[in-house]
Amino acid sequence: MRTVVFDLDGTLADTSADLIAAANACFEGVGHGSPLGVAQDALTAFGGGRAMLRLGASRLGLDWDEAQIDAQYPVLLEAYAGAIAVHSTIYPGAVAAVNSLRAAGFSTAICTNKPERLAVALCDQLGISGLFGALLGADTLPVRKPDPQHYFETVARVGGTAARSLLIGDTITDRDTARAAGVPIVLVGFGPEGAGVSRLEPDALLDHYDDLPALVEHLIPA
Fold it and tell me: Which parts of the chain span the membrane according to its record (predicted)?
């Protein structure tokens, strides 16, 4: 079975505002302001919670070491869990594109470095959980992207084979995962980095989800 695997944050959904709000909550909780903003820090948001904490601490002039970052990380996760889909939105055309793929006989799945419980909660609240046959998060397995085993297991859980699959993503982590797995990588050109993501030399750049079904047919022929 042909399989299309999607990253979640920055690929299927723009979650940057809610992620940044959760990071700011950590700084507010220890008596500081809100150092991060969506306009300038969306790309960092998709790099993960610790990346946001490091940036915020640096911007505030806080001399936080990695132990302090690690101590704040669970605080960030709980703040995020409590307000996970306040501002998050599905990218235009994504639902229709996934439905078109499924109607054409493709299996679809999500492989994300977001903790599994949060990824499931987000998909549930966005109403897209039923579109995917499997969802593997950062803690589903002992490994995560860019380790190719994370990708391989995602494909296997929907009955697919890596040789007839591809990954849709938005970051260097997704690119490196696909290269390690030996599968095509499609990067979206509508995330925070825009068309600049082409610097990662993906097999294809997706400018709008309307173009995805035809693109996938080209990269994974029947």
Answer: none
Amino acid letter for position 222: A
- Exactly one of 7, 14, 18, 170 is catalytic; which is it? 7
* Residues 97 and 31 occupy one common structural domain: no
Centre a 10 Å sphere on the Cβ of residue 43 and count the other Cβ atoms it contains.
18
pLDDT at 192 over 90: no
pTM of full prediction above 0.90: yes
Clarify whether 211 is annotated catalytic: no
Quote the longest CA-to-CA distance of the chain. Answer: 58
Look up the domain containing 210 and give its range: 3-14+88-219
Where residue 97 sits, what CATH number does that domain have?
Answer: 3.40.50.1000
Looking at the fold, whether 93 and 164 belong to one and the same domain comes out as yes
Instruction: Report the half-sphere exposure of 1 (CA within 13 A, side-chain side).
Output: 19
